[in-house]
Structures are given as structure tokens and as C-alpha cells.
Design brief:
Helices cover about 60% and strands about 10% of the residues. A 5-stranded mixed sheet has the order 1-2-3-5-4, with helices on both faces. Strand 2, helix 3 and strand 3 (about 100-105) form a beta-alpha-beta unit. By secondary structure, the protein is α/β, with parallel strands linked by helices. It has helices at about 10-25, 30-50, 75-95, 110-115, 150-155, 155-170, 175-190, 210-215, 220-240, 240-250, 255-265, 270-280; strands at about 55-60, 65, 100-105, 125-130, 130-135. The protein is globular and about 55 Å long.
Length: about 280
């Protein structure tokens, strides 16, 4: 069902509408990054609408949850957990997203991977992309069936919802390592969950920030995720948690991540990186 694609007439119509929207936003003096953020969200939203046309649907105050019959018995748990994640993340990050967010529940890893064109063996519990959250069926990974507490603590909803907030707060102007670092940091604060740490980290094992910026998804994922979380934790411990949000304010104004960090911390990025690497080596 999720492989259905819009016909060519719809594609042409959508492109015309997207260009018109882009021109309108441009005339409104909105930054180009925010223009493409809005267009990409609109495009992905329409794709989801067509690919999940036969899915069942449940609406809550802040979410539209789309699922197959496979997960009908988990719909209420997912809905409750999504609203809980909304409250927790919104309170922690002091932001209120008013529009409803779509969550698509895929019945197995293969179908989730297929919607992104991944290798069929790619594993993920959740993915955020362009305003939507896609998650793997709880049937596939929960240790105790229908355990709502386990789903809330071990599941992807808090993590992926933080990604959405970072996207909103920065107008789409962010680096992969930054959003992964913030998502892990906030998730740890809320649920206590964190990915397993790499063993015996030494200076020679650490990736440079240039490598994290350019090749995040091609690096060793355990190390790259750990470093991104450590960088955000270092920032919060050294400069105060509020600096994390100050960085995102500068990103929303169009600064690069390096520029935003320099402005928010009051130090040049080279010194920030040096101190951050020293912090990582001690963990």
C-alpha cells in the first residue's frame, strides 16, 4: 500500500504549486532555507498522503497517526505515547508546535527501509523527515507486548519529535550531527535512554567536526552518534543549556553552525572544538 505513487498529472500540478509557493515566500522576504523547508514539507506531506491512502488513521490533539491493520491493536498506545512525548519535549524545550504532525507506522523494517530507498537490511525504530515521523511497528521490537512504559522509554517518539523541533527552530538550517546531538541530549534528559557508548575512546579515534559535518552517515554510527551527543553535553555543561537554544536562534537567522556556536559561546570554533575533544577523552 505504501508503494502507491501519485500519477503524472498530479506530479505536474504539484510542481506548479510548489514553484508558486516558492515565489510567494520569496516575495515575503523569507530566507531561502525556510522556503525550501516549507516546499519539502509540502512535497513529503503529499507523498505520505498518497502512499498511505489505504492506511487506517487516528487523530489526537497534536498528531495524525496512520497505520495498517497490523498495528490497529497498538494505535491507542502510540497515540498516548505521542501526546506524552509532545508534552515532555515542548516543556523541556519551551516551544509549542500548533500544527498536527503526521506519524506513519510501518509494519516491518523492510517496508520502512523501502520508503527511503534504503538497503532492505537497514534497521531503524524511527525516522524524522520533512515534518513527518515514521516509526517501526512495536510488534517488531518491544520485549514485552503492549508494554506502554517500555514503548515510551525505549521507543523513538521523543527522539524523533526533538528532530522536528530542531527543524522548526532553525528553519531547516542545521547539520546532521547537531540535530542528532540535540535529540540524544533531550531524550536522555526526558527518558534516561541513551545509545551504548563506544569502548576505550582515544583521541586518535575521534572524528573531526569537519568529518561529522560532511560524512556523518558514512562514519561508524556508534562513534558519530556518541560524539554528537558528547558535543552537545559539553556545550550545556560548559556554557549552560540555554546556549543550545541560542545556537539554534543564530541558525534560524542563516548563520552556519560554526558561526552560530562562536556567537553563542563567545569563543572561536577552533578553541571550542579543542575543549570539546578534551571533554570527550575524559568520558
Amino acid at each position: 500500500m505504501w508503494e502507491n505513487r501519485p500519477n503524472s498529472t498530479f506530479v505536474v500540478l504539484f510542481i506548479v504549486l510548489a514553484v508558486a509557493l516558492g515565489c510567494y515566500l520569496y516575495r515575503s522576504d523569507i530566507q531561502s532555507g525556510q522556503i525550501w523547508q516549507k516546499i519539502s514539507r509540502l512535497a513529503v506531506g503529499q507523498e505520505i498522503r498518497f502512499r498511505t491512502a489505504r492506511f487506517q488513521e487516528m487523530k489526537t490533539d497534536h498528531f495524525v497517526i496512520k497505520f495498517t491493520q497490523t498495528d490497529a491493536d497498538y494505535a491507542a498506545i502510540i497515540a498516548n505515547s505521542a501526546e506524552r512525548a509532545y508534552r515532555q519535549v515542548s516543556d523541556r524545550m519551551n516551544i509549542d508546535v500548533r500544527q498536527k504532525t503526521t506519524i506513519v507506522v510501518y509494519p516491518d523494517s523492510r517496508s520502512l527501509a523501502r520508503c527511503f530507498g534504503w538497503d532492505k537490511n537497514e534497521k531503524a525504530l524511527g525516522v524524522y523527515w520533512a515534518g513527518t515521523i515514521r516509526i517501526l511497528s512495536p510488534h517488531e521490537w518491544l520485549q514485552q507486548a503492549y508494554n506502554e512504559a517500555e514503548f515510551q522509554t525505549e521507543g523513538p517518539l521523543v527522539h524523533e519529535y526533538v528532530h522536528l523541533i530542531v527543524d522548526d527552530m532553525t528553519g531547516g538550517n542545521y547539520n546532521r550531527w547537531w540535530t542528532e546531538g540535540v535529540a540524544q541530549y533531550i531524550e536522555k534528559q526526558i527518558t534516561g535512554f541513551q545509545f551504548a557508548d563506544p569502548q576505550d575512546v582515544t583521541a586518535g579515534q575521534l572524528y573531526t567536526f569537519q568529518e561529522l559535518n560532511k560524512n556523518f552517515d558514512e562514519l561508524d554510527q556508534q562513534m558519530s552518534y556518541w560524539q554528537s551527543r558528547q558535543a552537545v553535553e559539553f556545550m550545556a555543561s560548559q556554557y549552560g543549556e540555554e546556549v543550545i537554544y541560542t545556537v539554534m536562534d543564530y541558525l534560524a537567522q542563516g548563520d552556519t553552525l560554526y558561526q552560530a556556536i562562536e556567537k553563542a559561546t563567545g569563543t572561536d570554533f577552533e578553541n571550542f572544538a579543542y575543549q570539546c575533544y578534551r571533554y570527550m577523552e575524559k568520558q
